[in-house]
Amino acid sequence: MTHATPIRRDARTGLLPMALSLADAGVPVLPLRAGKGPFGNCPACVGNACGGRPNMKTPGPCACPRPCHAWAAATTDRAVIASPSWADAWERAGAVGYHPGGAGLTVVDLDDADAVTWARKHLPATRTVPTTRGEHWIYRGAMTSRNAVRPGVDIKSTMAYARYLGPGAGTMADLPDAVRALVAKPTVARPTPAVFGVPVPAGGGECRHRSPVFLERGIAMAEQRITEARSAVHATVYRTFLAVLSTHGRCGCLTDAHVDRLFAAAQCRGESLRHCADAWANARTALGV
Questions:
Q1: Are strands 173-174 and 135-140 parallel, antiparallel or unpaired?
Q2: Model's pTM, two decimal places?
Q3: Least packed by Cβ within 10 Å: which of 45, 65, 97, 252?
Q4: Is 8 exposed, middle or buried, given 0-12, 13-18 or 19+ CB atoms closer than 10 A?
């Protein structure tokens, strides 16, 4: 991506040679489906049965030779990219994707004309790539990824993928503080589940939710439901918070550590801390807890 020689796709070259050229330039690549999404996990890795981390905090969460685990499959290894294990994916692919953070880059994805106008007023000029509805602004430097940092603006860097749409135009600038500030966590009053009253169970026995196994299983299932969401993430987060609170919200079992885990899972799917806090508060209000 940082080579001076443009890398272009045409009917003669196809996706695989383009991917190899990007890999040679130090850009980790992966095949994307025609709908621009990554290929799903293979049967051996579905549901992270392989042991891969559901939230994919580190690249290469398992040793699967196929392009599994979305962005974490991105690689610069030519032998892997051109291997028989990836051949079927390339034949069915609609585009080449890349992991910007793995290449030391950040993509500011401007999804419409209004977002582009905003960027031209507030962000320093850098390399730009036209997209279907807007532009990708590419900066040198990696940072935390976050969707919907403002209307029509997504940040794609670490733990994210972007579609390769050509070399772009202009000189790539260093990642500015103005972009980093877009994902800065706002100061939000955190929910305090510990204030829930702990009812005395009938017969004086201990609340069953205090069983470490019962509670841990419930929180783990909630984390998995959120991290596996592929659409309607905000609605999934709210419904999951609602389910957790309906089971554990009235007995005092939840702690700040449990809430932090749920919020972290939601933020890995692009939710902001403010959205998490709002969803939690709304779920509590709906249940009257």
A1: parallel
A2: 0.62
A3: 65
A4: exposed
